[in-house]
């Protein structure tokens, strides 16, 4: 067995692991990066990249019909070409996350399974093609666990014996499903449900609660309407109790007696941290079913081991917010704490999130429901796209901009529903991070006509308080004196 001593050992080559490994290597640290699967992790191979490529193809397929006086023939979908487009998108981005790129940066990349054997070391079984496993022991000054997460498969009777898809396998389909059943109405279920419906498949979605339970109901309403208008059959508050599979297809039975049948099943019931095979007990690392426990500096109960991304268990540090930018930022902060000894801390308040359906739902900071549950005083300013000139000219006025602010106008959160909501969220991310107030956003000079003006209009409602009570009387007096 060979033994190595390094400055930083990173386990996991997804968004978090790659960020930390690159930063450490550029500063001259000796870095080992261990990945048992594909470089790039979930985002490149099974998540952000393939799903957005599929959504782009689906958006083009949805342009048939007569809109704004332009007659467009119903598109013909060649699903094998759609599949090729998805794979090409992955291949185009893959070099940025590749083993070759990171080796060029000075990172040693091992394709192996890692397992702790002591608080300061782990053992890897490296397998090269055509050879027997090579055992190595890695000792490191600091470790970063960035192992990501995997699809959660609920213990529903009959599911284990049924062929089902997850986000890790659905993009391998080369033929369009005849009737796709989706178990779960979160972002993955909604995005892929709308995409496959637009591409020509029949789609039935079952959700144990309502769609997107983490978002305000008024934000979900336009999306629910869009899905139903496009032909997605949506069953909310319908918990599946049994799964059956035969040569005729797959059948789901819900607790309320509802029965639906289809040709394919996508399980999109959430994710769980990938920590089972790490030997965390041997390293003295506290963890539970939600993941690895860390402090605000992303440090585990073992002071030489840090964790970032989907494996983090504390909700106040982003657990459940399994997004690429969260993983990347946490990894950067963990690296700064681990090797640079900078007391950097992760701020969950500024985490943005987008569900990339049509219409999009984007949010940063508190939702209205979260603000209400916090017990703090707040105000809500809303501007519908029906009152936005650009949205009117485009013939798509679905959605709104909602700004949540405290009594002094300091921005606590922003929710945007509508076309391009994710891009429209950018200035609100900055406003929240910098502690800006609604008045500052209302005074921004913006180009006309743009959808961004809806946000300015919402923020401008902050000044309406000046037109009430003693403030209004004062302003009237100033006008007379002027």
UniProtKB/TrEMBL annotation:
<dbReference type="InterPro" id="IPR008143">
    <property type="entry name" value="Ala_DH/PNT_CS2"/>
</dbReference>
<dbReference type="InterPro" id="IPR001100">
    <property type="entry name" value="Pyr_nuc-diS_OxRdtase"/>
</dbReference>
<dbReference type="InterPro" id="IPR012999">
    <property type="entry name" value="Pyr_OxRdtase_I_AS"/>
</dbReference>
<dbReference type="Pfam" id="PF02852">
    <property type="entry name" value="Pyr_redox_dim"/>
</dbReference>
<keyword id="KW-0560">Oxidoreductase</keyword>
<keyword id="KW-0274">FAD</keyword>
<keyword id="KW-0521">NADP</keyword>
<feature type="domain" description="Pyridine nucleotide-disulphide oxidoreductase dimerisation">
    <location>
        <begin position="351"/>
        <end position="458"/>
    </location>
</feature>
<comment type="similarity">
    <text>Belongs to the class-I pyridine nucleotide-disulfide oxidoreductase family.</text>
</comment>
<dbReference type="InterPro" id="IPR036188">
    <property type="entry name" value="FAD/NAD-bd_sf"/>
</dbReference>
<feature type="domain" description="FAD/NAD(P)-binding">
    <location>
        <begin position="7"/>
        <end position="331"/>
    </location>
</feature>
<protein>
    <submittedName>
        <fullName>FAD-dependent oxidoreductase</fullName>
    </submittedName>
</protein>
<dbReference type="Pfam" id="PF07992">
    <property type="entry name" value="Pyr_redox_2"/>
</dbReference>
<keyword id="KW-0285">Flavoprotein</keyword>
<dbReference type="InterPro" id="IPR016156">
    <property type="entry name" value="FAD/NAD-linked_Rdtase_dimer_sf"/>
</dbReference>
<keyword id="KW-0676">Redox-active center</keyword>
<dbReference type="InterPro" id="IPR004099">
    <property type="entry name" value="Pyr_nucl-diS_OxRdtase_dimer"/>
</dbReference>
<dbReference type="InterPro" id="IPR023753">
    <property type="entry name" value="FAD/NAD-binding_dom"/>
</dbReference>
<keyword id="KW-1015">Disulfide bond</keyword>
């Amino acid at each position: 067995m060979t033994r190595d001593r390094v400055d930083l050992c990173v386990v996991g080559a997804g968004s978090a692991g790659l960020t930390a490994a690159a930063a450490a290597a550029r500063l001259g640290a000796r870095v080992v990066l261990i990945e048992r699967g594909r470089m790039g992790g979930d985002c490149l191979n099974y998540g952000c990249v393939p799903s957005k490529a599929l959504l782009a193809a689906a958006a083009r397929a949805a342009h048939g019909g007569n809109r704004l006086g332009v007659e467009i023939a119903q598109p013909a979908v060649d699903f094998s070409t759609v599949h090729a487009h998805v794979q090409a998108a992955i291949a185009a981005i893959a070099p940025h996350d590749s083993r070759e790129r990171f080796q060029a940066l000075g990172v040693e990349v091992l394709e192996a399974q890692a397992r702790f054997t002591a608080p300061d070391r782990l053992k890897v079984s490296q397998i090269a093609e055509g050879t027997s496993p090579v055992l190595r022991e890695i000792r490191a000054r600091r470790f970063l666990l960035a192992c990501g997460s995997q699809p959660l498969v609920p213990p529903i009777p009959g599911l284990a014996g049924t062929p089902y898809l997850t986000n890790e396998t659905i993009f391998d389909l080369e033929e369009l499903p005849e009737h796709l059943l989706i178990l779960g109405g979160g972002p993955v279920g909604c995005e892929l449900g709308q995409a496959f419906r637009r591409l020509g498949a029949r789609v039935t979605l079952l959700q144990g609660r309502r769609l997107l339970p983490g978002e305000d109901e008024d934000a979900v309403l336009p999306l629910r309407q869009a899905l139903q208008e496009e032909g997605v059959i949506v069953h909310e508050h319908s918990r599946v109790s049994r799964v059956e599979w035969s040569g005729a297809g797959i059948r789901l039975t819900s607790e309320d007696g509802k029965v639906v049948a289809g040709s394919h099943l996508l399980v999109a019931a959430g994710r769980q941290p990938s920590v089972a095979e790490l030997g965390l007990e041997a390293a003295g690392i506290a963890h539970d079913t939600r993941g690895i426990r860390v402090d605000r500096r992303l440090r585990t109960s073992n002071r030489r081991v840090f964790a970032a991304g989907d494996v983090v268990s504390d909700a106040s540090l982003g657990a459940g917010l399994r997004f690429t930018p969260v993983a990347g930022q946490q990894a950067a902060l963990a690296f700064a704490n681990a090797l640079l000894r900078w007391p950097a801390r992760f701020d969950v308040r500024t985490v943005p999130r987008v569900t990339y359906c049509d219409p999009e739902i984007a949010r940063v900071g508190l939702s209205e429901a979260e603000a209400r549950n916090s017990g703090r005083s707040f105000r809500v300013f809303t501007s519908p796209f029906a009152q936005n000139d650009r949205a009117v000219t485009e013939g798509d006025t679905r959605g709104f901009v909602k700004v949540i602010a405290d009594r002094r106008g300091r921005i606590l959160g922003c929710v945007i529903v509508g076309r391009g909501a994710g891009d429209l969220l950018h200035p609100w991310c900055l406003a929240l991070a910098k502690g800006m107030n609604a008045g500052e956003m209302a005074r921004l000079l913006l180009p006309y006509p743009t959808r961004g003006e809806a946000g300015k209009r919402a923020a401008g409602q902050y000044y309406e308080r000046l037109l009430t009570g003693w403030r209004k009387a004062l302003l009237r007096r100033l006008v007379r004196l002027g």
